[in-house]
Amino acid sequence: DAGVIQSPRHEVTEMGQEVTLRCKPISGHDYLFWYRQTMMRGLELLIYFNNNVPIDDSGMPEDRFSAKMPNASFSTLKIQPSEPRDSAVYFCASSFAGGYGYTFGSGTRLTVV
Amino acid sequence: GDSVTQMEGPVTLSEEAFLTINCTYTATGYPSLFWYVQYPGEGLQLLLKATKADDKGSNKGFEATYRKETTSFHLEKGSVQVSDSAVYFCALSQQGNNRLAFGKGNQVVVIP
Prior knowledge:
Number of strands of chain B: 12
Number of helices of chain A: 0
Oligomer: heterodimer
Radius of gyration of chain B: 13 Å
Radius of gyration of chain A: 13 Å
């Protein structure tokens, strides 16, 4: 398996623009997680899905952030409009049920200027 | 709620030195415990895990023992290499719950 695949690896955008981050989880994994990592706040869980259904989105910072999982092999995280404080590395992770740990993607480094 | 606490600050040590990174947790019941490693520019990778008290997880020369009595899961390696320079995260998950609670991570720098 190719692992969790995220795209793009790097994204530079101007303030106010829409940004879409993409994730392909490992085939057969039931859970998908979106995290944000910054120096100041460390790793933050934004939202997670079970069988394509959002379970907990309490970590989503505000209405500018939205996430979808239209099928078992694809998820998006959208920021509209983007702001400089959204600059961070965004990770997607997936896992089987049963608490065996996650497999993380390589992340998308977002810079909003 | 469930939480994980890691020692403050980066760890800098010389090659072949002994490494310990402390991790304690607060949780009800019997959580599973994990150590993840993040190399520069990469995502987190599962390093080792333990699912019940007194279990020892091990991988790549790293070890950690699940200590229920002290609610700890300290990471150790007997002789570090420059290639072990990375950020190390301790984490836990509850039985039947796939959600991981992460510690803040520790930067480890190994000097030749």
